[in-house]
Amino acid sequence: MTSLDKQITIKRMEKKISVVAAPIIVNEEGKILYFKSVKWKGLVPPGGHIEYGETMEETVIRETKEETGLEIEPIEIINFGEMIEPPEFYEPRHLIYFHFLSKIKSGKIKLDQRELVGYEWLDPEEALKRDDIIAKESIKKYLEYKNEKRV
């Protein structure tokens, strides 16, 4: 193993904290848009790292456009939390996340094929019963929000 190979291996083993933002995209029928990601074992909302100087809302809009081709309108944060080394993620990571309830403003789904490789519109109640769905707590928060008749 060369010195560079060792550095690459060590870099992959580093434990990192990432602050991320993602939309919980809902259509008029109340279904949630989830995606197949190359980084996760299971279906997830799109999203990604908040860049320096970027607001969480700007991150959600940018990441969604980059990964899905959709222009969205974030409504409000419906959930936040952390995941410490989730087994479904491809590398050790401490994720601090913010999920925004969002609606599609325009566009058609066109996946970037680098991060996202498939998608499904999910009935929230059914999604909660599935083993392959990540971020179920945010789905529960969406249902609470919806039941308060704010959507």
What does this molecule look like?
By secondary structure, this protein is α+β, with helices and mostly antiparallel strands. It has a single domain, classed as Nucleoside Triphosphate Pyrophosphohydrolase (Alpha-Beta Complex). Helices cover 26% and strands 37% of the residues. The chain contains four helices and seven strands. Strands 1, 2, 3, 4, 5, 6 and 7 form a seven-stranded mixed sheet that branches. Strand 1 (16-26) and strand 2 (32-37) form a beta hairpin. The longest helix has 13 residues, at 56-68. The radius of gyration is 16 Å and the shape is globular. The mean pLDDT is 91.
Task: Give a nutshell description of this structure.
The protein has 151 residues and is of the alpha+beta class. 26% of the residues lie in helices and 37% in strands.
